[in-house]
Amino acid sequence: MNRPNIWSEQKEILFEDNHLLILNKPAGILVQGDATGDEPLSDKAAEYLRFKYKKPGAAFIGVAHRIDRPVSGVVAMAKTSKALSRLNEMFRDNKVHKTYWALVGKRPEPESGHLTHWLVKDPIRNVTKAYTERHGQGLKADLDYQVLGPAGNRFLIQVNPITGRPHQIRVQLATGLGTPIVGDVKYGFLAPLPDVSIALHARQLEFEHPVTKEAMCFRAPVPEMAHWEAAQAFYTR
């Protein structure tokens, strides 16, 4: 059996114990399978566990939350049904503190604040539209943001989403601040990145361990890509 390539250096594994597998997802990989039929991160994780523990059958892996395909960063998966059930509840009840980093082309004004929109997703086009007032079946979306500073010829924003709506950060930054994320042509950036990712990274997850109740904090380094190089100066800030 060949070890899956994604795990060859184990750089993607941020933490593992009996109940959790915390990964730094590369941009371009689905978290969970969809109609494309492309192999998702969940399948790769299950194969890794099957290989590591020499399991004769399929290994259990549970997906508690997802980040978009072109987005990189921290993804929490469960190795037991007990952990999955409790993680699902924590994400549903907003008991997980999420921190994202985003690169944008111009400095947002104001440099910090709170954004509230009502989001309506078009499932056919896979695009979300943001409204500043209540709108039909729109779901309320809230986030806090602050500019960390210039990063090369871009600006690095830290985003803390309070809700977890589809494409929330992408559409709220583009609509609410007029600052689409670098590479995100779907929401108004002028040109794609060479690897067709977008410069949005799930930087950190904080939550109570679903079984041991210990306070946990997982932080993922940004991808080793040219457009992220300047952001590494903010690691210790």
TrEMBL record:
Which keywords, in A-to-Z order, does the entry hold? Isomerase
MF-aspect GO terms:
catalytic activity, acting on RNA; pseudouridine synthase activity; RNA binding
Keyword Isomerase listed? The answer is: yes
One annotated GO biological process: pseudouridine synthesis
Decide whether keyword Nucleotidyltransferase is in the record.
Answer: no
- Cite the InterPro entries for this sequence: PsdUridine_synth_cat_dom_sf (IPR020103), PsdUridine_synth_RsuA/RluA (IPR006145), RluA_PseudoU_synthase (IPR050188)
Q: Which Pfam families match?
A: PseudoU_synth_2
What Gene3D superfamilies does this protein map onto? Pseudouridine synthase (3.30.2350.10)
Q: Where is the Pseudouridine synthase RsuA/RluA-like domain?
A: 19-174
Tell me its family. Answer: Belongs to the pseudouridine synthase RluA family.
UniProt name for this protein: RluA family pseudouridine synthase
Write down the species.
Hymenobacter elongatus
